[in-house]
Design a protein that fits this description.
The chain is an all-alpha fold. 75% of the residues lie in helices and 0% in strands. The protein is globular and about 70 Å long. It starts with a helix and ends with a helix.
């Protein structure tokens, strides 16, 4: 249990974010008289620094802080692949997707899918996106936040999360995307500062990198420093699973998920959207060192007797229940006061994830459901519908907590769910922008059949864990499902040939090099230069930690 100083710091931080969020919302309303575009897309005025920071904040939640440290303790740097591989998909987002999203002037990704395909595709993506936002972006984040608050302060998990959600909901619902982006920018800085503090504390306690490596050698665990593992690795995530499976998950998450891409849709122009995405790609290099690595340091500290994990539960064989490793590191490695800063960082991850998801849900409900039923709805009616939907989504997320708490690793739970949702969506977006012949009928059937297959495989995996289907790593399963979806879309595209509209024929690339010919800023701000630099850095890092 922590002291009053740390609790006070956490409370002051929460109140500060609430005040900033309300101020941002009120000032926007005074400036722009409450138009729907200003509320949902910040008047399409966002610049690249805010976009990059907001993308990162929406992605990184308390789940990442807690579960990546847990994975670092359990398997080493392996789950850092989800961070560095994201750089490749953010390059894809910047080069190939951003131009179409902004040129088409869409408010939501389901809207884009209708313009490229048809209304049925829009309706299906809307439903899937809302469900995934509630489960993946909000409920799992709530669960991780609740575990942290219960561990550190002894608070009732459900009560404390409900209070945090109400506070987050207030400024999100009042202020719209502008309030979300401004608060997310602050929260990203606080989150990174907190992560650096715990990383340095663990590094200092261990005596540096060489000391940690010596312990790994003595324990016969040097492979924990490897990002790409061989076939048959006990982690269940060999190198080919990462190479084949991550792009399927990553393209959906970074390029086709409304909760993430909404920050791009609010960009001031194409260059700000592209550079904002790439800026996030550069920030994504950090989590391996400040989220995953502290968990690995915790493992070596435990092996050398410098970290007491008795409270987590250690069996006779020395196996640890590592679910609370991050909070335990905070309490044992940091002095009072700094602990409060770390709690603020954890709350930043929780609040930014929830606010971003609530904003995207309200946008989709307003534009993709309410406005479709009532085409002549006023801006005020659209905003009201969005606010009501945000409240309902928050209530549903709270109700899901007991069910999701059954996952041993929250991070793996999230990616397990994504692996069965992503394949059909990744397929229709990729073929939609790269293949002229991808037809509306093929998109509809791919989404329907692919989603049904994902649900069937997910259920079979849980009910029949001993069969072959239960033995396939979820990343490899995502690749298999994607290949099936591609075949489905190709077959249906030839069975029901495309009939392009004047709009849809402008929403696919005629030439693979065309994205590199767009207008770009001069110097280091050139998106082509930044893409090449980011690609080079990540490839070099993989060469070091292969």
């Amino acid at each position: 249990m922590l002291g009053s100083l740390d609790l006070s710091i956490a409370i002051i931080y929460i109140l500060l974010i609430l005040a900033v969020g309300i101020w941002a919302g009120v000032s926007q309303k005074l400036e722009n008289k409450g138009s729907a575009s200003d509320y949902f897309l910040a008047g399409k005025s966002l610049k690249w620094p805010a976009i990059g920071l907001a993308l990162f904040a929406t992605n990184i939640s308390t789940v990442h802080l807690v579960s990546l440290a847990q994975s670092g303790f359990d398997t080493g740097l392996l789950n850092g692949n989800f961070e560095w591989m994201a750089a490749f998909t953010l390059i894809l987002l910047a080069l190939f997707f951003v131009p179409f999203y902004l040129k088409s002037g869409v408010s939501t990704l389901p809207d884009f899918l209708e313009r490229r395909y048809d209304k049925a595709s829009r309706e299906w993506l809307t439903m899937i996106s809302i469900v995934s936002a509630i489960v993946i972006h909000i409920a799992f984040s709530m669960l991780a936040g609740g575990i942290v608050l219960k561990t550190l302060f002894g608070f009732d998990m459900y009560l404390s999360i409900t209070v945090i959600c109400i506070i987050t909901g207030i400024y999100t619902i009042l202020g719209g995307l502008r309030a979300v982006v401004i608060t997310e920018s602050i929260q990203t800085i606080v989150l990174l500062a907190g992560a650096f503090i715990i990383s340095f504390a663990a590094y200092d306690k261990m005596g540096g990198w060489v000391s940690m490596k010596d312990v790994l050698v003595d324990e016969g665990q040097l492979e924990r420093l490897s990002m790409l593992r061989p076939h048959g690795d006990s982690s269940g995530m060999p190198w080919y699973a990462v190479i084949l499976g991550y792009p399927i998950l990553g393209i959906w998450y970074w390029c086709a998920d409304q909760t993430i891409v909404q920050r791009i849709l609010g960009a001031k122009d194409e260059n700000h959207g592209r550079v904002g995405a790439l800026f996030c790609g550069f920030i994504k290099i950090l989590p391996v060192f400040i989220f995953v690595l502290p968990g690995l340091f915790a493992y070596t500290l435990f092996k050398t007797g410098q970290l007491d994990l008795t409270s987590l539960g250690v069996d006779v064989a020395g196996n640890v229940n590592s679910k609370g490793i991050y909070t335990l590191m905070i309490t044992q490695l940091l002095p009072s006061g700094l602990i409060g800063v770390l709690v603020a960082a954890l709350l930043s991850g929780l609040m930014s994830q929830i606010s971003g998801a609530l904003n995207s849900i309200s946008t989709m409900v307003s534009y993709d459901i309410y406005k479709q039923k009532r085409p002549h709805a006023t801006d005020k009616q659209l905003i009201t519908a969005g606010k009501i939907s945000a409240v309902v989504a928050m209530a549903f997320s709270l109700a899901l907590l007991p069910l999701l708490d059954k996952y041993e690793s929250i991070f793996n739970g999230i990616n397990d769910v994504i692996a069965h949702i992503a394949p059909p969506i990744t397929c229709v977006f990729l073929l939609g922008i790269f293949w002229k012949k991808a037809s509306a009928a093929s998109s509809k059937w791919t989404l329907w059949i692919g989603s049904a297959l994902g649900v069937i495989v997910f259920i079979a995996n849980k009910l029949l864990p001993g069969t072959w289907i239960g033995q396939v790593p979820f990343m490899v399963m995502a690749f298999y499902l994607f290949i099936i979806c591609v075949l489905i879309q190709i077959i249906f595209s030839y069975r029901f040939p495309v009939q392009h509209t004047a709009e849809s024929k402008e929403l696919y690339w005629k030439n693979p090099l065309e994205p590199l010919r767009g207008k770009a800023w001069k110097g280091i701000g050139n998106y082509r230069v930044l893409s090449g630099l980011l690609l080079l850095i990540v490839v070099v890092l993989y060469g070091i930690f292969k």
